[in-house]
Amino acid sequence: MSTKTKPETATPSNHITGSEAVVRCLLEEGVDLIFGYPGGAIMPVYDELYKYSDQIHHVLVRHEQGATHAAQGYARSSGRVGACIATSGPGATNLVTGIADAMIDSTPMVCITGQVPKHLLGSDAFQETDVMGITIPITKWSFQITEASEIPEVFAKAFYIAKSGRPGPVVIDITKNAQFGKLDYQYEHCEVVKTYVSRPEIGKNELQEAADLINSAERPYILFGQGVILSEAEEELKSLVEKAGIPAAWTILGLSAMNTDHPLNVGMLGMHGNYGPNVMINECDVMIAIGMRFDDRVTGNLDKFAKQAKVIHLEIDRAEIDKNVKTDVALVGDAKEVLSLLTPLVNTNTHESWHQRFKECDVMEFDKVIRNECDPTEGMMTMGEVIKNINQHTHGEAIIVTDVGQHQMVACRYAEFKQTKSNITSGGLGTMGFGLPAAIGAKLGAPDRQVIAVVGDGGIQMTIEELGVILQTDVHVKIVLLNNEFLGMVRQWQQLFFDKRYSATEMINPDFQKIAEAYKIEAKRIDDRADLDKSIEDMLNHDGAYFLEVMVGKENNVFPMVPSGAGVSEIRLE
Amino acid sequence: MPQQITIAVFSENKAGLLHRVTTSFTRRKINIESLTASQSEIPGIHRYTIVVEITPADADKLVHALEKQVDIQKAFWYANEEIIYREIALYKIRAEAMKDGSPLLEVVDRHHARILSVEKEFTVIQKTGRREATTQLFEELEPYGILEFVRSGRVAISRPMKELKDYLSELKVSSLR
Ligand SMILES: Cc1cc2nc3c(=O)[nH]c(=O)nc-3n(C[C@H](O)[C@H](O)[C@H](O)COP(=O)(O)OP(=O)(O)OC[C@H]3O[C@@H](n4cnc5c(N)ncnc54)[C@H](O)[C@@H]3O)c2cc1C
Ligand SMILES: Cc1ncc(C[n+]2csc(CCOP(=O)(O)OP(=O)(O)O)c2C)c(N)n1
Ligand SMILES: [Mg+2]
């Protein structure tokens, strides 16, 4: 080593440690925010995060599961890759639920875990756990780095894989020796992986076949999902819908990809979706599924699902074609690309009388369900009237993050949206505890937007420790706790299908006000309808985080409902 | 109806990949009857040959699920008529059972098996063929005492003339994101 005097403007050396390389790779990928929790096997990287703290903001969560959900919320509100970091052993295993959640909901996320030094792998060393073995089934891709020199290439590949094609979570496990080791750092972004097709080529014949089917249809029906949001194809979807005059329904993860009040948006599909959108599945003649995967919560009994219809399925993932619903025309490709090629081929149309059918169903649903849920005048407050009131104050401009349960279904049914990427919920895994940390991440991913977490009394207690992040990082999320003192969704099933045997669903809850107060978060609890409007207004106007607990009816149910095992036409309004 | 299906998976040879391949089966509760890993005709491309008992419809889904794994290049499934396939079996027999004039020699001959190795205390017989053939030989050798038996997984060659290279060049990628 020479001891010459340093030049005035020191460019950073490229002969650096693995741990510094990790941080510089993150910067190369545009990561300026990372959620995590330190520990022995990842300490070298934390030391670098300290040195680079002016460029990367590390958010200290209170449990690693919170880091994953926060990264998910961040990814879904911003459209960027969420990043999180944890130590080996228990740190890594605490990530598992969030990784599985990101996998099933196609959320781009990169998780970094520390690992024992290479020479101790397999020796049952302190906090050693087989992170690769555990996470392989729940990741889009994973890699264990055991040499510092591998770091740049693996990181580049990880970010590319996480965000391209059908997005998903990636795990990078880094042994401690690789963090301490030196390398000659050089970074090149990854643009192709030989064995992986991120954007399938679109078939010209299929496009024409799809257009012909749509043009000949009398009762065409679009079902769209999260693929539209992931592809940023909102405008393209709208063009198709408007040009061809096709009613369009969203899945829960497709919520907000179109404006709620768009005249051709007919509402929500699925078990707790709207009446018309479910019933019309068995009346349409051509079904056009766009960026949705026919989840069983959407289809109900597959033997009673759209048997009369010709099905067009637009999907980026070939494995989804014919997986659940047999397709007549498969459009394998990116939604934005395919839609922009398809719309010019379809004829202008209006399908007036067909729309009318949806409207008739809407009237029935309003009379039997919505009026009572959203405009009750007596009894305990309902979840629906709380969501309706939020709409009135936010005018559909807020991001709504939900936990899992009845409150989730009610929020998804009634929240109104005027912007895309505004509904963030755990769909495929249905992870209780998702809501609070995901809302924190969503707010950090979209700091200029109002972010409202709608949570249940059960779910919030699964990750309530993340209130500590609000305290330490000052994240201005608004938390609306819909407290029914029950694990309501399970209780509803017990009432309907298990003769009201409320096995382990009644909750003796803590004083949430005191908990919020302990974390220095402004809090209020209401149980009188008369206080609702003012409380929501105060919450939204408050310059900071806010915790509003609303006591709602204990034994209210979410309707409509497609009972499990039933067909979508057998949807119950009461 | 479930039937015997042979799945060929082509990938780069990477640590952890076998786990990714097998979890695609285990998570669907598909039992792997045999699995063989080897190189393929293309340098750097590895091949797994996996035998399972499933329906053709499930085979379609499984192959697509395998193919979508980032490190897997291509996967195919074949019914038995579409492939030429063999297994190899080795049988270890006590030396005394093989002494001159033993009827065993005739058995080995009739089965087109061959004597792979003659050692002081034992002899190793090798038989290449389908499962039924190696099993048949096993049954005929059993009365003479089999000290050790092993059978490989299936190896299979497809009948269609299209080469893997052609499939791979078909995997065109449009604009990259
Ligand atoms: C208690 C509970 C109740 C539920 N009830 C309902 C219900 O009533 N209704 C409902 O809809 N859901 C319900 N869900 C959610 C449900 O389980 C599924 O998560 C949801 O239906 C999936 O929606 P999706 O198919 O749009 O999204 P995803 O599961 O995210 O699928 C998106 C699809 O788009 C594809 N894609 C991704 N990128 C692109 C691209 N660029 N171009 C084209 N395609 C792309 C993906 O490959 C994937 O197949 C419920 C969940 C819970 C927890
Ligand atoms: C981690 C986890 N455990 C269990 C469940 C099963 N589950 C689904 S909804 C629900 C009840 C949720 O109760 P709460 O948070 O109070 O919401 P509510 O339904 O009352 O609105 C339960 C237990 C789950 N989805 N996730
Ligand atoms: Mg509850």
What would your notes on this structure say?
The complex is a heterodimer of chains A (about 575) and B (about 180). Chain A has about 575 residues and is of the alpha/beta class. Chain A folds into three domains: about 15-185, Rossmann fold; about 205-360, Rossmann fold, CATH 3.40.50; about 380-550, Rossmann fold, CATH 3.40.50.970. Chain A is about 35% helix and about 15% strand. Chain A is built from 22 helices and 20 strands. In chain A, the strands form four sheets. Chain A has a six-stranded parallel beta sheet, sandwiched between helices. Chain A has a six-stranded parallel beta sheet with strand order 11-10-9-12-13-14. In chain A, β6, α7 and β7 (about 170-175) form a beta-alpha-beta unit. Chain A is globular, with a radius of gyration of 25 Å. The mean pLDDT of chain A is about 95. Chain B is an alpha+beta fold and about 180 residues long. Chain B folds into two domains: about 5-85 and about 155-160, 2-Layer Sandwich (Alpha-Beta Plaits); about 85-150, ACT-like. Chain A, domain 2 (Alpha-Beta Plaits, 2-Layer Sandwich). Helix content of chain B is about 25%, strand content about 40%. Chain B is built from five helices and nine strands. In chain B, strands 5, 6, 7, 8 and 9 form a five-stranded antiparallel beta sheet that branches. In chain B, a hairpin with a 3-residue loop joins β6 and β7 (about 120-130). Chain B is elongated and about 60 Å long. Classes of the chains: A alpha/beta (about 575), B alpha+beta (about 180). Chains A and B meet through β6 of A and α1 and α2 of B. Bound molecules: flavin-adenine dinucleotide, thiamine diphosphate and magnesium ion. Flavin-adenine dinucleotide binds next to α10 and α13 of chain A.
What's a concise summary of this model?
The complex is a heterodimer of chains A (574) and B (177). With 574 residues, chain A is α/β, with parallel strands linked by helices.
